[in-house]
Write a structure and sequence with these properties.
Blueprint (H helix, E strand, L loop, with lengths): L1 H22 L3 E6 L4 E4 L1 H7 L3 H4 L12 H15 L9 E6 L5 E12 L4 E9 L1 H23 L3 E6 L4 E4 L1 H7 L3 H4 L12 H15 L9 E6 L5 E12 L4 E9 L1 H53 L5 H32 L5 E4 H11 L1 H7 L2 E4 L4 E4 L1 H17 L8 E10 L11 E9 L9 H4 L17 H11 L3 E6 L5 E8 L6
Parallel strand pairs: 12-14
Antiparallel strand pairs: 1-2, 1-5, 3-4, 4-5, 6-7, 6-10, 8-9, 9-10, 11-13, 14-15, 15-17, 16-17
Helix pairs in contact: 9-10, 10-15, 11-13, 13-15
């Protein structure tokens, strides 16, 4: 009875052991001392892509790629002779070969089992394909991250909570003039001028106690101290990083030396320009008003001579009076134009949304009589809406279209073409006012001019055609001043006898004044 009980327990134990092996996630294979496979559990069959019956009875080396496949018999023989195993009782990463030829990595643990009648080896196979992929992806990610840090244009510095430098990238080394080994382990305050250098430890201590940040998570302009003692400005942004076991701070250092120099130059230039413009406006306004009084007297006494004493004058005297009054009228026009020129900025209004098409229609309506008298043909294409000063836009179009009609060729129907296109100063940049421009073209078939005079035609009082055409020569100077005030400029393309094309650029949007 006792023997039957023992036999039953033995059968139960074997069944339990078989169930454990068959349901194991890892593969389990047993081989005899010649390397022939005796058992293979379902997990091992799944891992290698075989049915168990395809492997059992064959040498285990069918599951190995070269060179392990050819060396395996020798390895077993050496183990039998020396008792020294390379994997048995140790375990290590090896490569396996699936039925479809795929090579994959797995962790192999082999144990030797001596039964009463024979020796067998049991191998436990843990597939680490996914683990290897994850490790490779992590390595690739780390390599990319390190490459980004090392090649970054901005300096990157990492410090610990005590302010000691743990990492610096090449850009930071170059910015501060140190080599890496001169910085690692030293307090970050060595890169700061006074008083920041002395205050830094207290600042960090205060942050740790209160959480009140001056730069961390905010960023601001600060000064840095180079190894050679020179001080330079940079924009510092600091992020706090919580690692598994500690906290570190990473600072991004963006050198703004050139930006600050440019800003200071621009500030001084703007101040000088403002002073110069104010003086010019005051001069133009005062002189124009001061010139009005004597001019009015010349006109008044000239008119009196012409109405009361004209018949008593000789023919030569009458000619003198007529010339004087004509000159006074021209002088009056010059003064009025000079006042208009000075008012472009001094009397200017805020920018609003302006439909240039509507402005052009109004200007052409104002010029209707001139257009009819000269038989001018106006060809226009749609113009956009921009931020501008409506009165000055009207003045701009009026001057340029009037000029195009005035400087026509005799015996030829004047044709004026008006068109526009959108322009970007730099590709992909549209965020800042001034990035996007509208380019307006006003082209005629008139007398044209030699482009060697291009710089002169936009200066006040410049007239290339002498006394043949009426005008003060200030019109184009006013146009340039308006274009510049609207974030653009004006230029022209022309040849004598072949017409002129004026090209005006205007910013689509403007800074708030």
């Amino acid at each position: 009875m006792e023997e039957q009980q023992n036999s039953s327990n033995n059968i139960d134990s074997q069944a339990r052991l078989k169930a454990i092996i068959d349901t194991a996630i890892d593969g389990i294979i047993t081989i005899d001392n010649r390397g022939v496979v005796e058992t293979m559990n379902p997990a091992a069959a799944r891992i290698f892509g075989y049915q168990p019956e395809e492997v059992i009875g064959n040498n285990i080396k069918i599951l190995m790629p070269e060179p392990d496949r050819s060396l395996h018999d020798v390895y077993i023989e050496n183990y039998h002779q020396t008792g020294i195993g390379q994997i048995i009782g140790i375990g290590r990463e090896v490569l396996g070969k699936k039925k479809d030829g795929t090579i994959f990595p797995f962790l192999l643990s082999i144990s030797e089992v001596r039964l009463h009648d024979k020796q067998i080896f049991t191998g436990i196979i843990h597939d680490i394909t996914e683990q290897k992929k994850t490790e490779a992806a992590l390595r690739e990610s780390e390599n990319k991250f390190n490459s980004i840090i090392k090649t970054a244009v901005d300096g990157i510095i990492t410090i610990n909570t005590r302010g000691l430098i743990e990492m610096v990238n090449p850009s930071a080394e170059k910015l501060f003039g140190y080599e890496e080994h001169e910085l690692i382990g030293h307090n970050i305050s060595m890169l700061m001028p006074e008083p920041d250098s002395s205050h830094h430890d207290a600042y960090m201590e205060r942050y740790h106690h209160t959480g009140e940040a001056h730069i961390i998570g905010i960023g601001r302009e600060v000064s840095g101290l180079r190894k050679d003692g020179s001080i330079f400005p940079f924009f510092l942004s600091i992020s706090e990083v919580q690692l598994a076991d500690r906290k570190v701070y990473t600072g991004f250092v963006h050198d703004i030396t050139q930006q600050k120099v440019s800003e200071e130059r621009l500030r001084r230039y703007a101040a000088e320009l403002e002073r110069s413009n104010r003086e010019l406006q005051d001069f133009a306004y005062v002189s124009s008003h001061d010139l009005q009084e004597p001019l009015r007297k010349i006109q008044a006494f000239g008119d009196r001579l012409k109405t009361k004493e004209y018949d008593k004058l000789s023919d030569q005297g009458k000619d003198y009076i007529d010339r004087m009054l004509n000159a006074a009228a021209r002088m009056q026009n010059l003064i009025n134009d000079l006042l208009d020129f000075s008012r472009v900025t001094s009397k200017s209004k805020a920018f609003v949304k302006v439909k240039l098409d509507k402005i052009l229609t109004e200007v052409l309506s104002d010029l209707e009589v001139t257009i009819e008298q000269t038989g001018a043909v106006i060809e226009r294409t749609p113009l956009p809406t921009i931020e501008a000063e409506p009165t000055q836009m009207r003045q701009l179009f009026q001057n340029l279209i009037s000029n195009a009609i005035k400087f026509r060729k005799e015996g030829v129907t004047p044709v004026v073409r008006i068109s526009a296109q959108m322009v970007q100063r730099h590709a992909h940049l549209t965020a800042t006012p001034g990035d996007e421009l509208v380019e307006i073209s006003i082209e005629d078939n008139g007398i044209g001019f030699d482009e060697k005079y291009l710089d002169r035609i936009f200066n006040i009082f410049q007239r290339l055609e002498g006394q043949k055409y009426e005008g003060s020569g200030i019109g184009l100077a006013v146009c340039r001043k308006i274009a510049v005030r609207h974030g653009g400029d004006i230029t022209a393309r022309s040849k004598p006898g072949e017409g002129t094309r004026f090209i005006i650029t205007l910013a689509k949007k403007h800074l708030q004044e």
